[in-house]
Amino acid sequence: NAISVFPNPIVDFVNVKSKIGTISICDMNGKIVYSGIHNGKSEIDFRNIQNGVYFLELITEGGTVIEKIIK
What we know:
Layout: E1 3-6, E2 13-18, E3 21-27, E4 32-38, E5 41-45, E6 53-60, E7 63-70
Antiparallel strand pairs: 1-2, 2-5, 3-4, 3-6, 6-7
């Protein structure tokens, strides 16, 4: 499952390129700060999300990938 998440650390937006699926981003406490459908290329707005460490979970037909991201 190839996934590209950039830039990391994040400034205002994070870009995700991978297979089609669903994306969830949660903080270190497990609170979901973003969830949505991923069409292969997504730009997610992080401007209103606090600085910290987050986990991006991408679920596709081929499985689940989790990436650590920092803002």
